[in-house]
Amino acid sequence: MHLKSLTLKGFKSFASATTLRFEPGITCVVGPNGSGKSNVVDALTWVMGEQGAKALRGGKMEDVIFAGTSGRPPLGRAEVTLTIDNSDGALPIEYSEVSITRRMFRDGAGEYEINGSSCRLMDVQELLSDSGIGREMHVIVGQGRLAAILESRPEDRRAFIEEAAGVLKHRKRKEKAVRKLDSMQANLARLTDLTAELRRQLKPLGRQAEVARRAQTVQADLRDARLRLAADDLVTRRAEMAEHTAVEEEIRGRSDEVTAELDAVNAEVAEHTEHLAQVTPAAAAANQAWFRLSALAERVDATNRVASERSRYLAEPSVTSSGPDPEQLERQAEEAALTEAEMAEAVSLAAESLEVAKLELEEYERVAAEAERAHMAAVRAIADRREGLARLEGQVESLQTKADGVDAEAARLTAAIAAAVERAETAGQQQDSAAESLSQMEASEQGLDEHHERCVAALNLSNERVASLQAAEREAEQRIASLSARIEALSVGLERNDGGAWLLENAPDGLTGQVAELLDVNAGYETAIAGALGPAADAIATVDALAAVRALQALKTGDGGRAALLLGGIGSAGPQRDLPLPDGAVWATSVVVAPPQIR
């Protein structure tokens, strides 16, 4: 397995799509400062899932997107694709070539792909973890990483050593397994509680089921009784409804007869009204004639009185001679007699006419009275008929209301019977369901016992697995210890191959050797003294300052690299201060013996 290619687009300084192809062996990327060499390593770290912006030498994760230049606008996303040759099957995936793509947008959204298919960050990490590469693996050593590892404390180096030894993934798997075991233990405890609770509730549930059966029997009897009563009531209501229907039909027949009689009475009233309208003008004319004749009779009576006065006046002897002429008076008397005769004749005629008019008036009055009486009788008959008709209509409405009530009651009873039948069926189904549930509960109790036994067996297997993992962890720790010793030895060798080693090989004048080799440390304090000295343990001791200057000049002219120098001949250390020490602690000078020139 080896890296085949790396494609960068919009990542930091790589605005255009850039593809770096790698072959088996060592590949070097060279270039001046600021050309983007470190960005290639950052791209490898980023595509394998790095989530920290500081690890990518940035302030925030959006800094990995090309920010633009004076001649080129910024981009909206960064994309890196890493292609790995998997022909040897080192990665647990059925492809001879694996492409991992990470894409990030300026709004913070991100995507991961494996061979063009969308995936999660966890999928990428799990794919790379078994192969020894990934965002936290030691195979990528960035700027300052080597110095940080060499200068770190022993407890900080542990994680790096575990990572190099391949223990980190086992530790994570162990933590995951422990979490699963804790979850299983919690589920098992809950299952045990549920089993105990169900067992505790079984007896009360049995008693409740028996009570429910008896209650269902009583309810069934009660429903049957109510149904029988409802059926009897329905029969009674139907008989009453038939009787009321017959009465209603009879009343409707009588109503038709009364309506016919009322129409006849109305016709008779109309006839009398018409006759009254015909007689009324004649009666009015008779009244007028009677009034004229009465006036004429009064005039005749007045004329008779005047004639009587005049006759009486003429019959008296004349008192004086100076009165009117007798002949004239006779003529007047004759004229008055004629007028009286005429008046008498007219009075007799008027009296006859008056008698005839009175007879006609009486006849007309009689006819009008009869017509009025007939009219009033007809009005009373109409009122009686209307009252009877209203009474019949009221009876019809009352019977119709009763019939509607009977229909509603019949419908209600029918619905009640249907609902009662439905409830009876539902109750039967519920009884069957309750019986089935009870049988299932009785069967589930046995199933819970079996599940409990399986869980206990799984717990025992898990405990055995934990024990084996702990043994593997101990073996890994032993391997880590051996690897730590080897790393320290390799580190010393690497430092010797640097400037210090070059100086010792060329052996300029005034050098006494490496500090760690010049010191004589009591047994058991080697690690403590090495930690206290740190990088000074690999320094080269000189006899004086001139020797140190000559050594520096030799390193510069011979391009020997860097080296730490410890100057000798500048005096001994000061007196030891009387300071309190923790329990078990000693002064370093009491367990280390050094040559006089480096004291």
From TrEMBL:
<dbReference type="GO" id="GO:0051276">
    <property type="term" value="P:chromosome organization"/>
</dbReference>
<dbReference type="InterPro" id="IPR036277">
    <property type="entry name" value="SMC_hinge_sf"/>
</dbReference>
<dbReference type="InterPro" id="IPR010935">
    <property type="entry name" value="SMC_hinge"/>
</dbReference>
<protein>
    <submittedName>
        <fullName>Chromosome partition protein SMC</fullName>
    </submittedName>
</protein>
<keyword id="KW-0175">Coiled coil</keyword>
<feature type="region of interest" description="Disordered">
    <location>
        <begin position="427"/>
        <end position="450"/>
    </location>
</feature>
<dbReference type="Pfam" id="PF02463">
    <property type="entry name" value="SMC_N"/>
</dbReference>
<keyword id="KW-0067">ATP-binding</keyword>
<feature type="coiled-coil region">
    <location>
        <begin position="459"/>
        <end position="486"/>
    </location>
</feature>
<keyword id="KW-0547">Nucleotide-binding</keyword>
<keyword id="KW-0963">Cytoplasm</keyword>
<dbReference type="Pfam" id="PF06470">
    <property type="entry name" value="SMC_hinge"/>
</dbReference>
<feature type="coiled-coil region">
    <location>
        <begin position="347"/>
        <end position="409"/>
    </location>
</feature>
<feature type="domain" description="RecF/RecN/SMC N-terminal">
    <location>
        <begin position="2"/>
        <end position="148"/>
    </location>
</feature>
<feature type="domain" description="SMC hinge">
    <location>
        <begin position="510"/>
        <end position="598"/>
    </location>
</feature>
<dbReference type="InterPro" id="IPR003395">
    <property type="entry name" value="RecF/RecN/SMC_N"/>
</dbReference>
<dbReference type="InterPro" id="IPR050308">
    <property type="entry name" value="MukB/SMC"/>
</dbReference>
<dbReference type="GO" id="GO:0005694">
    <property type="term" value="C:chromosome"/>
</dbReference>
<dbReference type="InterPro" id="IPR027417">
    <property type="entry name" value="P-loop_NTPase"/>
</dbReference>
<dbReference type="GO" id="GO:0003677">
    <property type="term" value="F:DNA binding"/>
</dbReference>
<dbReference type="GO" id="GO:0005737">
    <property type="term" value="C:cytoplasm"/>
</dbReference>
<feature type="compositionally biased region" description="Polar residues">
    <location>
        <begin position="428"/>
        <end position="443"/>
    </location>
</feature>
<keyword id="KW-0238">DNA-binding</keyword>
<dbReference type="GO" id="GO:0005524">
    <property type="term" value="F:ATP binding"/>
</dbReference>
<feature type="coiled-coil region">
    <location>
        <begin position="167"/>
        <end position="201"/>
    </location>
</feature>
